[in-house]
Amino acid sequence: MIRGICIILLFYFLGEMASYFMNGFIPGSVCGMVLLFAALMMRIVRPEHVKHVSHILTQNMALFFIPAGVGIMANFGIVAENWVALTVIAVGTTILVLLSVGISMQILDKHIK
Amino acid sequence: MREIYTSTPAMLLLVIGSYFIGTLIYRRVKSSLFHPVVIGLVLVIAVLMLLHIDYETFHRGSAFIDFLLGPSVVALGYLLYEQMEHLRGHETAVFLATLIGGCIGVTSVILLGWWFGMDEQIISSLQPKSVTIPIAISLSKNSGGIPALTTVVVFFCGVLGSIIGPWLLNKCRVNNPIARGLALGSASHGLGTARAIELGAIEGAISGLAIGLTGIATSLLIPFFEWLLR
Q1: How many domains does chain A have?
Q2: Would you tell me which residues 55-74 of chain A have a C-beta closer than 8 angstroms to some C-beta of chain B?
Q3: Which of A35, A43, A87, B105 could form a disulfide with A97 if both were Cys (CB 3.0 to 4.6 A apart)?
Q4: pTM recorded for the entire structure
């Protein structure tokens, strides 16, 4: 458990470092994710060492969104002023992305093997 | 007295307790409208308003949970590795579909934003709206957006996609589990993945993969379309 936490934090730190040298072009957590994935594929990290901690973290991801979501309190002014446009854009583009990815994947998957 | 109920243990208990109550209600009702996040969010905001605690104070107290978003993104790297077998043979299709979704996502926000006559600052805040929150916040900052507004909109898109996503995909006869997982993760990040995990193991795995791929694709596409369209 402790070893798993250390490995995850180590890759988060390495990711932040990589991000720093790229001038923040890709955020640290994403770099960390890619690095951890690469390390697992190249057998540098043994999967059973990070399995438990990774499952705990990813299965409870929705909880970690709550503090950020409460931010709506502090930004009520901007939301109230633009709520029609914000709602149309958020709803419209979410449906667009959802269906374009879903449908294109379903079609591509049939033809590219 | 005030220091006690605005302390870190109190704020952590408020967030985790509200989320826990949310999971209990969700388990009984089984309706997406009562998603643990929706209930958790409403409970937290209600308590904060009742006790006159401002967002800054809350944010300081709940910083630990906020921090865990980072490690959970890193941990997705493991989820990706674990479920790689489901991707085998579909690599090109997944890569292309993610790229198509990323392009449509970023350009549709810019074009609709112009059509509504929105400030550049607000458009910049909306561009990463399909990306997981910690990534979206960094991208918003990079392109001159308001990170807090990004958080709210990204969160809303996540809740929306996780609620209407499976229904919408059924309506459009998207029944390939890989396509369903990829769509949910691409449109609704962590919240879409939380929903996709409930649909099945393949959906969950591919959705987790989509968060990372969409994050990377959007990180590269935002600077590109800013250069192309402005």
Answers
A1: 2
A2: 57-74
A3: B105
A4: 0.79
